[in-house]
Design brief:
The chain is an alpha/beta fold and 202 residues long. Helices cover 32% and strands 26% of the residues. It folds into 2 domains: 19-123, 2-Layer Sandwich (Hypothetical Protein, Haloacid Dehalogenase-like Hydrolase, Chain: A, domain 2); 129-199, 3-Layer(aba) Sandwich (Rossmann fold), CATH 3.40.50.1000. It holds the Pfam family Hydrolase_3.
Length: 202
């Protein structure tokens, strides 16, 4: 599962692609172009894309950590790909202000979700990590009560609500801890790995 549930595979088989409709795509691109403090990545099925002149080579290389297929383009509007998500980086101290601004200005056409630290994903309404996990669980005959999930940011909340066992890592945001029914050590302490080793010994 990738891109907050917009792209789901079972082995080599593609199970689901959530494609952003053209009107929403244009609206988000225009929004990014009109907010100079933001830096954007447009995520498609074949690749993710950044615009020349809008971001530096160093920032593009940094984004490659998360987007291993990342192409330069002159204009997002010229990309011929099925678009499944947008990512924008904003000044860290303005994360929630931009999140709320996006919520108001997109008017439900797309939904912003943030893991904090200046990172905001802009996703299709109803298409999130929980929907992706549920698609695979249904396919494999697994009940939600058997699902274990881990989260640290706002884009994990729906998934933690869906899972029978939802862990918030110790350094998770307060809203994540509020919906999780268990906690584990922080990312810096390999908290997820500690739980998995306990659940699956040997």
């Amino acid at each position: 599962m990738a891109e907050n549930g917009s792209f789901v595979k079972d082995g080599p088989e593609v199970v689901f692609i959530g494609e952003v409709d053209p009107k929403a795509t244009k609206t988000v691109i225009d929004w990014i172009h009109h907010h100079d403090e933001t830096r954007g990545v447009m995520c498609g099925v074949r690749s993710a894309y950044v615009e020349r002149g809008a971001v530096t080579q160093a920032w593009r290389d940094y984004m490659w950590t998360w987007y291993h297929h990342l192409e330069w383009v002159d204009d997002f509007r010229a990309v011929d790909d099925a678009i499944i998500k947008f990512f924008v980086e904003v000044p860290n101290e303005k994360t929630m202000a931009y999140h709320d601004l996006l919520s108001r200005e997109l008017g439900g056409l797309m939904v912003p979700t943030t893991s904090g630290h200046g990172s905001i994903d802009i996703i299709i309404p109803g298409c999130h990590k929980a929907s992706g996990v549920e698609r695979l669980a249904t396919r494999w005959g697994i009940d939600a009560s058997q699902v274990v999930a881990f989260g640290d940011g706002g884009n994990d909340i729906e998934m933690l609500r869906y899972a029978g066992v939802g862990y918030a890592v110790d350094n998770a945001t307060d809203d994540v801890k509020a919906v999780a029914n268990r906690t584990c050590p922080s990312n810096d302490e390999d908290g997820v790995l500690q739980v998995l080793e306990r659940l699956f010994p040997g």
